[in-house]
Amino acid sequence: MRATGSTRMKPPGSLPMGSKMSSKPKSNSRKPRLRGVFNSSAVRGAMAALPRSLAATGDPSLTVAGVALSVVDAALIAHMGSQIEANRRELSDRTEERLERLEEKARLDKEVLESPEFSALVFQAAVASAYESEAEKIEWYAAILAGAASRQRPSELNVRALLSSLTFLTTEEMRLARQFYEDFNQARYSIVDGAKTPAWGPDTGLFLKRLETANLIAPNIVQGLPARFQADSGNYFVTDTFHRLMALVRETD
Questions:
Q1: What CA–CA distance (Å, rounded) separates 156 from 195?
Q2: pTM of the model
Q3: 69-120 pLDDT, tens per residue?
């Protein structure tokens, strides 16, 4: 699905739009910082179980080990497993590259990297990446992981809750959100009026509601005014959560 009448913005790390999973980050000659977490039995075990789990939800004949699978079923699960493993490596490589940038700026908080909370965040991002088909969305996850390890990360930001919200947005919706954020800041809209409703094609209303649900944008609602008197094409604002997300991402851009 493509938005109409819009200019696509660059995602985190300036990854070209529509890039394939083969677009690899630069090799990191330094000692990997998170490889142990990404290669842990917890992460690999959870991701290895996903193909069967996903297949079982779509076809009752595809259940846990012990039930015979057809040749087609087995091939499908093997393909899914290969893609999930590729996504895990993609996330690991891109996160390591961003952590290297942090270290070069002397902003890397190594104590955070060693904390159980950060390991849980890595696990969450790794599982989320298993469901993605584009490197662009995985780049967002890597930016969030690396940003969370910065000494200058936004204070009191619940990164796990933020990551969970973004997991349910599509790559296209993240592009539109980034575009809205950039346009909003460049235009310097009034804090009272906000930005006009964007023209994102026939599904504009759907996109706006989903971005609202993720708490990235908010409509301008006049308190106390009945719904029938509110503007048909309301104005929108960038939320504080979105500002803090972008501050997190730009720590390693």
A1: 28
A2: 0.72
A3: 555 555 555 656 678 888 888 998 999 999 999 999 999 998 998 888 998 9
What are the structure tokens assigned to 158, written together? Answer: 């619940």
Domain segments of the chain as ranges: 24-153, 173-248
SS3 of 135, please? helix
Angle at 44 between CA 108 and CA 158, to 5 degrees: 45
Distance CA 236, CA 243 (A): 14
Q: 143-186, pLDDT tens digit by residue?
A: 999 999 999 999 889 999 999 999 999 999 999 999 999 988 87
Residue with tokens 């390991």: 119
Task: Give me the residue label for tokens 């083969």.
Answer: 22
**Are 74 and 80 spatial neighbours (Cβ–Cβ below 8 Å)?**
no
Helix H segments across the chain? 35-38, 41-58, 71-104, 110-113, 116-129, 135-148, 159-167, 171-187, 204-213, 240-249
Closest CA to 242 of 220, 222, 210, 216: 216
Instruction: Reply yes or no on domain 173-248 having CATH 1.10.10.
Output: yes
Q: Are strands 217-219 and 236-238 parallel, antiparallel or unpaired?
A: antiparallel
Q: Dihedral, CA atoms, 60, 62, 64, 70, nearest 10 degrees?
A: 140
Q: Report the greatest alpha carbon distance in the chain.
A: 63
Quick one: which of 174, 173, 97, 162 has its CA closest to 125?
Answer: 162
Amino acid (one-letter) located at 138: I
Q: Which amino acid is at 123?
A: F
Measure the CA angle with vertex 129, ends 128 and 135; round to 5°: 145
Phi, psi values for residue 49, rounded to 5°: -80, -15
